[in-house]
Amino acid sequence: MAATPATPAPLLHSTVLDWYEANARDLPWRTPEASPWAVMVSEFMLQQTPVKRVLPAYAAWLERWPTPADLAADAPGEAVRMWGRLGYPRRALRLHAAAVAITREHGGQVPDDHAALLALPGVGEYTAAAVASFAFRQRHVVLDTNVRRVFARAVEGVEYPAQGTTAAERRTATGLLPADTGTAAAWAVGVMELGALVCTARSPDCGSCPLRRHCAWQAAGCPPYQGPPRRGQTYEGTDRQARGKLLAVLREAHGEVPQARLDAVWPDQVQRARALDGLVADGLVEPVAQGVYRLPH
């Protein structure tokens, strides 16, 4: 489904772009000085992590590893250590692997070709499109959670998008993508910002939304979500929390860690063993000897 006849795509474009120009956050990866590598680092860090938590980690990361070659020259465990408490630490390993590939296969420069970006380790469809669009000002459909929510409400007239990206969503996004390359890149980040700041998941500020007069969800009376139950993420007492506790010990140790130090931070023996096995399987932790562990070298 494309934009409704009452709301031509060019009107949506100009409305969102005018709003973005006046309201965009001043973020370091959006400055003219931000390198493609800086944009890629931000995209890895921003996955499932709020901007306010990313900002200090992003600055520290680029200070230590301002280029892909700088990161590639270091051990993957150092990437895990620097990732700190951002969560989902496998992203650190994937970013390290991408840096190694960029250094070996692309002369240390983040490639500007979408297919080459997609071929990098740890780079999926969203990240490849985002880096190509935001770093190189190319024309690509960039679909993250915020963009999908804006399109679901403004175009489809429903409160939330489906749990996973659908072919219909891709058709909508493709149909709304401006033909001009520069405008398309600005549109991609503008819609994303609108979803992050105004058309939020829990408390959308419809009164200040630039699309309120064109929004299909508003026109329908803001009907409540009718799809499958949306599960909230829990953390306390989960294997994910156990993994985080164990990994924190290893990050802070700067060396090998005996089993006893890991045992001390999580009392449930079965869950602790399961979490540790998962960290080893994911490549985040290396067994050195019986009962001795370290970050990957």
Automatic annotation (TrEMBL):
Needed co-factor(s): [4Fe-4S] cluster
Keywords, alphabetical: 4Fe-4S, DNA damage, DNA repair, Glycosidase, Hydrolase, Iron, Iron-sulfur, Metal-binding
Enzyme Commission identifier(s): 3.2.2.31
Domain HhH-GPD intervals: 45-197
A Pfam family annotated for this UniProt entry: HHH
Reaction equations catalysed: Hydrolyzes free adenine bases from 7,8-dihydro-8-oxoguanine:adenine mismatched double-stranded DNA, leaving an apurinic site
UniProt KW DNA damage keyword: yes
SUPFAM superfamilies to which the protein is assigned, alphabetical: DNA-glycosylase
SMART domains: ENDO3c, FES
Enzyme class per UniProt: hydrolase
Family: Belongs to the Nth/MutY family.
PANTHER family: ADENINE DNA GLYCOSYLASE
Name the UniProt record assigns to this protein: Adenine DNA glycosylase
